[in-house]
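Two records follow; treat each independently.
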Amino acid sequence: MALRETLRRGDWLTRERVRLWALALAGFSAVAAVVVAATSNGWTDWQGRPLATDFSCFWTAGRFVLEGRPALAFDDAALFALQRATFGPETPFYGWLYPPVFLLVAGLLATLPYPVALGLWLAVTGALYVLSIRAILRSAEDGAAPDPLWLLLVLAFPAVFVTVGHGQNGFLTAALFGGALAILDRRPILAGVLLGLLVYKPQFGLLVPLALVAGGRWRTAAAATATVLALAGLTLALLGPEPWRAVLAASGAVRTTVLEQGAAGWHKLHGVFAWTRFWGGPVGLAYALHGLVALAVAVATAWAWRAPVRPALRSALLLAGAFLVAPHSHDYDLMLLAPALAFLITDGRRHGFAAWEKSLLAFVFVMPLFTRAVAEHALVPVGTIAVLALLIVIVRQCINAAAVAAAPISCHDREHLRSPVAS
């Protein structure tokens, strides 16, 4: 009983414990990164795989761009041949799963030697991620400097280590999405541009138009649409129509192989669709269950963005919902939870935490460290379950916030709210 009450109240989550656990997580990640770098030859790790595995598909696809053959990025045989020619004959295949606009980034990266490109990619996108979280915290504190502990927590989030290990774009996704929501009220057009830049991850944009329309964010929606069209036009002008034809031709095979058959491994994926397939459910049932959850999340998102809900809560709802609704969410995409957690922590410090919320936030924070291993060996999709629980808590908080905002305030309460003690 005592343990249950402690977890419900979250009193165990003291500042000193948070600091010590964050130091331990950050230290583990740093040591692991140093070991991998020290045992590599600059291009491959000690197992003979490309250093930062998934980044190899960015760089090799970029080589095709520089050669004037960008459509070959969507040709699995050609891409695989180039990867093995570059990194060695035992190199596993790392497929290109992005729309043609991301080839512009890949082409720029391929102008540099692989280790230099990897280091620059992680440094720049990592810095953008840190700046986006700082923007969230500063907006919540009305421009004041956030608690000094924030930077340690931002770097200790285990999804950071996962993203570095894959050389993936999790930092950039979190930076664009979180940064856009942090400045939405102050700079709506720039927020729209940032959201439009997320077009390279279209699966995470499914809820964005719904939220913007429900919230009457017309300037942001227009800026996002213009950005997407501009990027598509620029890609067409620079790379020609062939990559667009190639992505359309490959889309059916990608859906079947990656989504329906789980070629990457179900234990690496998140969402209700992956959960259903992971436990042996047929494709039709997976689509049906995923659709029901997506519909419920969409309704909740539209309501929250239209109702008198605090900005931090509706932003966290959109981030967690985008992750859950996406048909294909990898473990490095858990980076989207970093800005969601930042919004929830700042809102909780100002307005109070719900029962169990602090303990749940702590669990969600550490979850990326072990979710893949638990799913692979215990067959329990911890990541999906944790995000579902987080989403339920956010929706309840949104409902409570809307009820408080709609409730009439008595003269006594109004005077109390104006008093220095209440502030």
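The next record belongs to a different protein.
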Amino acid sequence: MTIRRLTSKDLSAYRAIWADGLMKVPTAFLFGAEEVRAIPNKDVEKMLEVNLTLGAFDDARRLVGFVSARRGGPQRMQHMADIGPLYVRSEAQGQGFGRALMDALLQQLATAGIQQVELCVDVENTGAQKLYHALGFHVFGRRPRSVLIDGDGRDDFLMIKALDGTDLTRGA
């Protein structure tokens, strides 16, 4: 297994795995398949440059998973980052790729001075929730109808983790 940052050289593989994820687990993504197909390559390359997107490669050097994080935009939010999506191809699940991606991402974010990370996870995605809990995330809210997929509202849990040792559960 190899974990590394994705670059514009990975564009085709990244778009392919993103499309795979949208087909197989549409509830794991903010964008719909039509929206993703409409994003020009130059914009996806810019996303790879600006956001921290890590890829997991199997022994055959095939991209089998990815995770992204975006640092807060305004100065007052530069201490935090939003994580997502995290996706691992179904045939590679259960082999530690998701955990390795998240471990590497959290380490790089902490090294970059990020103090806390947040993510959203579909309330029915118990596998991802189990991973996030094991990594030290905790639920701090529920967003009803976070997304609409084919007209149906999907709820998300909002999860948070401190990277600097601060207890974020106070008052929770």
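Discussion point: The CA atoms of residues 110 and 163 lie 6 Å apart. How would you locate this feature using only the token line?
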